[in-house]
Amino acid sequence: MNKKMLEQLSNYTVLYAEDDEGVRNSVAEMLNLLFKKVYIAKNGEEAYALFLEKSPHIIITDIKMPIINGIELAKKIRQSDENIQIIVISAYTQVDYMLDAIDLSLMKYIVKPITETKLCEALEKFLQLQKNSNTIHLVDSWVYDSSNKTIRNEQTEYELTKKESSLLELLLSKKSVLTYEEIEMELWPDETMSLNALRLLMKNFRKKLPEGYLKNIQSIGYKL
Q1: pLDDT (tens digit, 9 = 90+) per residue, 48-63?
Q2: How far is CA 43 from CA 144, 200, 206, 217, in A?
């Protein structure tokens, strides 16, 4: 696994479900070296609760588990999230399981034993899908990655604060001017937005954007 891939995976969280303790510990040890955070479950019920609580970026699950198996877990998850990437791992190669996997739009079906090569291939596909679905072209070589909350160009990558990423997403969703009132309502929902706080936010935010990309419409608000 190359350095770039390791750096990219370190921005994501993963939920891993496996009932076999030996396999679970072995794979979890590998995942902890790759991901920012690894959530571990020993059955489908625990996995579903962690999915609802932690909102991981990717799910890796065994099929044969007690209480809720991996296929049923994927079905429950798909009821509320059609986009999260799911990798199923199993000793089974029966047609019925494969057809279920196809119906659930699973990202990958890995047949045991789990090897580093198989896992790397699956995670490489995950990163490619994330890149295609989460990157927004701003201008020239400038790109916003909504999953990592970063803006990058050919030379530099900027990490956005929570307010900065929320502001950018608001601006991208607006075809017209984003008003001061809308900014206050969305970014300062429980307090009054001071003029100094807004000025400081915009000053730091502009440093992470292409020159001239953010325009102030006097007495109204901002637009891209």
Answers
A1: 999 988 888 899 999 9
A2: 36, 48, 47, 54
Domain 160-223 CATH assignment equals 1.10.10.10: yes
CATH number of the structural domain 3-134: 3.40.50.2300
Digit-coded pLDDT (tens) for 62-115: 998 999 999 999 999 988 888 789 999 888 665 556 656 656 778 888 888 888
